[in-house]
Design brief:
The protein is of the alpha/beta class. The chain has 3 domains: about 10-140, inorganic pyrophosphatase (n-terminal core); about 140-220, no CATH class; about 285-410, Diaminopimelate Epimerase, Chain A, domain 1 (Roll). The protein is built from 16 helices and 12 strands. The strands form 3 sheets. It has a 6-stranded mixed sheet. It has a 4-stranded parallel sheet with strand order 2-1-3-4. Strands 5-6 form a two-stranded antiparallel sheet. Strand 1, helix 2 and strand 2 form a beta-alpha-beta unit. Helix 4 packs across helix 10 (about 235-245), helix 6 packs across helix 12 (about 265-285) and helix 10 packs across helix 12. The longest helix has 23 residues, at about 265-285. The two termini are about 20 Å apart. Keywords: Exonuclease, Hydrolase, Nuclease.
């Protein structure tokens, strides 16, 4: 299935369809922007009394069934889609919710915008930023975008940055100790924190020239004010949603849907975010990285990476971990380690790989095409994708061969 089967409709047009729908099925790609957009639409549908269902899929296929209306989010498929191409899906969802006569949550919207790699106020998110600022729900300040007030915990698990202490909370706290931050951070302390992180990202061993610009989306965050959101910053919220989309999609959808998330939901979200971020960074620490023409490949072993007690994962756990974590590893390599336009994270033990590109290159379609050669599964969007291959004597295929074919296709 290709990525060009429908056109993203104007907000008013899709709002009219949703307003008349007896039932709506929302299917979102497994990323923070799409999950935020799904949450915004689901809230709007709930407000106008339209029954709905939400699910997250790495390769969503719209299936309306009966008289239901199906909406794909994050992928350009089916008659009703919010593709996320050109501008974040969450910005479109904000406009559609308004067209339905609902006042959408600007914080969730802006979190989706950041998760999409955009900047609040740009790419169609100006109305959401204006709404958040007008209601005094956000404040731009110096510092680093983290979901939690615990800086050591936040820097260790954040996937918005890649530093020498990523994946290691104690090392992060040791680095923080060198700049003597006060218990209550003022703007000057936040500036010192931002300077530390920016320098450590750019000077890290193996850092690419792209790293210095990639870190900027984690700097000068929009701080959430009071009880405006379950996390400290909009960027931290985005980081959490992106991790949840693959690590715990049910929790991610619940979070985006909740107008007032409970303490239990917030704790569950933070736990999943922390688990995801630490796993990605630790796997990348142990990765073997090779550069090829057009791409950089990080070979990891999630089954052998293990836990703190040194034990490895069972194979089923490793496959689940690979499905969740490999896309994040690929993105980290793309943003902070790769001088090439494409980064690939591959785990031979589970027969899986994930790829991320700096611009739309038809990665999803390339992964699907290659996967069919090896009797495997391929999925993705224009700028990211994945392949899963089960080694078989009948097909004489493995993920290493699929990787070689993908490199050739790119």
């Amino acid at each position: 299935m290709t990525e060009a089967t429908s056109a993203t409709p104007a907000p008013d047009a899709l709002a009219d369809v949703l307003a008349d729908a007896p039932f709506v099925r929302l299917v979102a790609t497994d990323d923070g922007d799409a999950v935020a957009a799904a949450g915004l639409l689901a809230r709007a549908l709930r407000a106008v009394g339209t029954p709905f269902q939400v699910r997250v899929s790495r390769d969503p296929v719209p299936d309306a069934g009966d008289d239901a209306v199906a909406v794909s989010i994050g992928a350009d498929r089916g008659p009703h889609a919010i593709s996320g191409t050109g501008r974040p899906a969450s910005a479109d969802a904000f406009a559609i919710a308004r067209a339905l006569g609902v006042d959408p949550d600007p914080i969730v919207t802006l979190a989706g915008v950041v998760a999409a790699g955009s900047v609040p106020g740009t790419d169609g998110s100006g109305d959401a930023l204006e709404a958040a600022e007008r209601s005094d729900r956000v404040r731009r300040r110096p510092g680093v975008a983290l979901p939690t007030a615990d800086l050591g915990d936040g820097l260790a698990a954040s996937t918005l940055v890649r530093t020498p202490y990523s994946g290691d909370a104690e090392a992060a706290r040791a680095a923080l100790a060198t700049i003597g931050l006060p218990a209550d951070l003022d703007d000057d302390a936040h500036r010192r924190l931002a300077s530390l992180v920016a320098v450590d990202v750019a000077d890290a061993e193996g850092a690419s020239t792209r790293a210095a610009s990639a870190v900027e989306r984690a700097l000068r965050p929009y701080e959430t004010v009071g009880d405006a959101a379950p996390f400290e910053t909009v960027g931290g919220y985005a980081d959490a949603l992106d991790a949840l989309a693959r690590e715990a999609p049910g929790t991610g959808v619940a979070l985006a849907l909740a107008a007032d998330p409970s303490d239990g939901l917030r704790t569950a979200a933070l736990d999943a975010w922390r688990t995801h971020g630490l796993a990605a960074h630790r796997a990348l620490d142990a990765a073997t990285i090779g550069r090829y023409d057009g791409c950089v490949v990080a070979r990891v072993d999630l089954a052998g990476d293990g836990s703190e007690d040194g034990g490895g994962s069972e194979n089923g756990d490793a496959e689940r971990d690979a499905t969740a974590v490999l896309p994040t590893i690929a993105r980290l390599v793309r943003d902070f380690r790769s001088p090439e336009p494409v980064a690939v994270a591959v785990d031979e033990s589970t027969g899986r790989l994930a790829a991320a590109a700096t611009e739309p290159l038809g990665l999803g379609d390339a992964c699907r095409s290659v996967a069919t050669e090896f009797d495997g599964d391929g999925w993705g969007t224009a700028d990211r994708g994945g392949i899963a291959v089960t080694e078989s004597e009948a097909t004489d295929g493995d993920i290493t061969s699929a990787l070689a074919a993908l490199r050739e296709a790119l």
